[in-house]
Amino acid sequence: MKRDFIAVTDFSKDEIYETFRIAKQLKADVKAGKEHHYFANQTMAMVFAKPSLRTRVSFETGMAQFGGHALYLGPNDISIGSRESVKDIARVISRYNNWIMARLFKHEHMLEMAKYASSPVINGLTDYNHPCQIMADMLTIHEHRGTVEGQKVVFIGDGNNVCNSFLNFASIVPYHFVLATPEGYDPDPTTLERARAAGLSKIEVIHDPVEAAKDADVLYTDVWTSMGQEAEKLKRLNDFQGFQINDELLSHAKSDALVMHCLPAHYGEEITEEVLDGPHSVVFDEAENRMHAQKAIMVMLGNGSGANIQV
Asked: According to the model, what pLDDT value does residue 83 have?
């Protein structure tokens, strides 16, 4: 039976840690020049309703390292949900390709694609969540701290798709998650309640960034205005004043706190250039780990659909 990766909750806690182990091994293999053509001669259709630097490059490069080929389908190639129905697109391209990665606006389109595709579908982002990003983020914390459990991770910014994925992760693996956001920018209420109901993690939503940052192990941020929200930019710039990760805010976190950002960064808005380029930043480790985490997710899905892969 084929498996999809639509949300981090598609994996159990044990599977998440196995994904981290595989990602670290694959990363070491790349550094050592060792080839691992686990998906030789296979193809991946990459469906982009939203363009992206990291998602495209990391999946395309990772598929090449696996010995396969990735095909980029941009917003004008498909016009998903308008030129052709999602279910027909899913059924057609999975006849041609072994894998589908989709980066879409509407989460319901992702769910529909997974329902009708016969090939595994990997969620490269929707307006609701960003599971590949969160796996890379937590892999990075695991590399630098040896664990994610018990870490105080403070997300400074909008209760957006990345924030929702942090909450989903908190329902599987215990850690301390704090969202510091202006009033009116809280995360999806159902996701928040589900994460709290799991009873594993301490979860807080705070409207004071200084209070939130106290004794943080990780300070994390994202852009204040995401793709598709451009009409709200001026309002958001005003509402998020005081929610910037800068030297002053960083001083309230632990002395060895990590600074993270899923990129792209808007210097002078959600983060200063000095902090992102400073000694606390692991932002480019995090960006690199997108590829390694995603390759490990593919190995997990490949094993789940009957492939015999030992990493």
From this structure: 81
Which is the catalytic residue, given 104, 262, 276, 299?
A: 262
pLDDT digits (tens, 9 = 90+) for 288-301: 999 999 999 999 99
Cα 90 to Cα 47, 87, 271, 285: the distances in Å are 10, 5, 39, 33
How are strands ordered across the β-sheet holding 99-103? 69-73, 43-48, 99-103, 121-125
Phi/psi of residue 50, nearest 5 degrees: -110, 125
Distance CA 239, CA 224 (A): 9
Would 19 be classed as within a structural domain? yes
The answer to whether the predicted template modeling score (pTM) of the entire model surpasses 0.90 is: yes
104 and 232, same domain (yes or no): no
Q: For the chain, what is the domain count?
A: 2
262 labelled catalytic: yes
Low-confidence ranges of the chain (pLDDT < 70): 303-308
Distance CA 131, CA 147 (A): 19
CB distance 133 to 253 below 8 Å: no
pLDDT in tens, 189-222: 999 999 999 999 999 999 999 999 999 999 999 9
The C-alpha atoms of residue 201 and residue 167 are separated, in whole angstroms, by 9
Residues 63 and 79 in one domain: yes
Q: Rounded to the nearest 5 degrees, what angle is found at the Cα of 155, between the Cα atoms of 226 and 108?
A: 45
3-state secondary structure of 277: coil
